[in-house]
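Q: Structure tokens for this one, please.
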Amino acid sequence: MTATHESAAESVMAAAGEPQPAPGATPPRTPLTARAAAELVGTAALVAVVVGSGIQATELTRDVGVQLLANSLATVFGLGVLIVLLGPVSGAHFNPAVTLADWWTARRGGAGVTTREAAVYVPAQIVGAIAGAVLANAMFDAPPVTWSTHDRSAGHLLLGEVVATAGLVLLIFGLARTDRLRFASVAVASYIGAAYWFTSSTSFANPAVTIGRTFTDSFAGIAPGSLAAFIGMQLVGAVVGLALVALIFMPGRAAVEQPAQ
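A: Here is the predicted structure, written as tokens:
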């Protein structure tokens, strides 16, 4: 992977202010074990923030609007910190949809994760998400596993997941195409915070996080029966996002030099 073809998934390396290699140089690669650990821990921490702040909010107020505000603010700050901290190690995907989009980009000739790396990242993210939900339950003195009863199967919620995930993929890979990855930590966290409010589904936009949130019967939970449709729409959203990246950030053709008259 060269400096001139930086992976969108490694967005936070630039955002964290890490020195970049000279053009054409191959940057050092962190061992895959360390990257998998970063994805597992980062996804676990993200889900713990989402679930824990949701539980805390419902214990402090009965106003649903205030609960959502508290939940979204905690997620924005938590996600931003995790991207800055772990981005230089693994790229801070924390999201199978992002990992698969990055893998697809690599298959199409761009920079991104290999098949082997994607096969390690995705299970690490799922295990981390489940661990994060269990941890959040335990911190608030609830049973470690409490299956959610929060049904989210309505069609308008599924549409919200397509929109949320498409926007996230468009943002990440659009930043990569325009060489603005230094803004990734702020931009991604801000987008997720906004999408909590402008999407009907409150923007899960993440298959691993969706799986983790079935393990908590709290404000942030999702019933297992809603899981398959949510994940399906997230994957559809990732495809839509990649299509929008290809359409909007189409590589320009170099101008043909005209001969002197």
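A few notes: The chain has nine helices and no strands. Residues 177 and 251 are 9 Å apart (CA to CA).
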